[in-house]
Amino acid sequence: MSNPRHERRDRARLAHAQRRLARKAKGDGANRAKARLKVAKVYARIADRRRDHLHKLTTRLVRENQTIVIEDLAVRNMVKNASLARAISDAAWSQLRSMLEYKAQWYGREVIAVDRWFPSSRLCSACGSLRRKMPLHVRIWTCDCGTTHDRDVNAAKNILAVGLTASVCGAGVRPQQKTPGGQSATKAETSTARAVGIPLLHEGEKVKP
User: Fold this and answer.
1) Nearest of 159, 1, 134, 136 to residue 72 by alpha carbon
2) Which of 7, 136, 161, 163 could form a disulfide with 69 if both were Cys (CB 3.0 to 4.6 A apart)?
């Protein structure tokens, strides 16, 4: 399901309402209140449509999948990037994760968040080689093994693979938490990855056959 970008679709309407509010004098109580109400209605429309989309999406994901693997993103830090803040906020990633977690409990499903430092984009999902750098503007790249990757699709494959190993280890939603045996889920993922053949996170290292 594609991102409907609710804020972008209503951006012109919101900007028009905000300009009308800005033109109202602070002493003009009634007219200023009406203009403020119109701005609030546009914001409410965006929020309601976004929430409805997220509910439909998360319900479908939880019903159709026994285990859901996501990336433990630092959304609060990511929105500090002026170039990405509006798009990230419009997608409501934090709200999406929250809905997935509580609905998974309702349906008896499992949600696993892979550590944010796992190099999912730089790791070749075909041969396991790790690229040293992967600038954000690179969306398509070709590994030395000859496999051409879409950045996001490749990252999703790697996140799923390492997340399922965490499931085998009994790791919870947040990889930073301790497992009952006292080992962090991140370390548990690494040790299990060794057992099943997922590459360790060293520059230039490849999966051994």
Assistant:
1) 159
2) 163
List per-residue pLDDT tens for the chain, 209 residues long.
567 777 777 888 888 888 888 888 777 778 888 988 999 999 898 889 889 999 999 999 999 999 999 998 888 777 787 777 777 777 788 898 999 999 999 999 999 999 888 999 999 999 999 998 999 889 999 999 999 999 999 999 999 998 888 777 655 444 333 333 333 444 444 444 444 444 444 444 444 44
Structure tokens at 3: 């991102």
Parallel, antiparallel, or unpaired: how do β-strands 148-150 and 67-71 relate?
Answer: unpaired
- Amino acid residing at 15: A
Global pTM exceeds 0.85 = no
